[in-house]
Specification:
The protein is of the alpha+beta class. It has 5 helices and 4 strands. Strand 2 (37-43) and strand 3 (51-58) form a beta hairpin.
């Protein structure tokens, strides 16, 4: 599993407008429906009103590559440009072992 955290930062609410357009325009729903997508969700950091965090999780590199080659990427790029967003990315690859037992004591269920 591959998780990518994308931080979109703009000015004058641009990052939130971008996320709203992605949701309201249906692009986010199309991405969620793509084969291999596990999660595609926007979050708003409490201490930074000009940044939006996208958590984007895929089954493997092949499905992520297919997503990047899809026609909807041009719409995403157009919206990023429209709202003049800067991006920071973090990539995480699962070790497929889940949460270790010794860490489970910190998880409240």
């Amino acid at each position: 599993m591959i998780a990518v955290n994308l931080y979109y930062t703009g000015e004058n609410g641009g990052a939130r407008k971008f996320a709203e357009k992605m949701e309201q325009g249906g692009t986010a729903a199309l991405i969620r429906a793509e084969k291999g997508n596990i999660r595609y969700e926007y979050f708003f950091p409490m201490g930074d009103t000009e940044t939006v965090l996208l958590i984007d999780i895929w089954e493997n590199q092949a499905v992520l590559d297919a997503h990047h080659a899809s026609p909807m990427m041009s719409e995403i790029a157009r919206l990023r440009e429209k709202y003049d967003l800067r991006m920071k990315a973090e990539r995480f690859v699962s070790d497929d072992n889940g949460i270790p037992e010794y860490d489970m004591k910190f998880i409240r269920k």
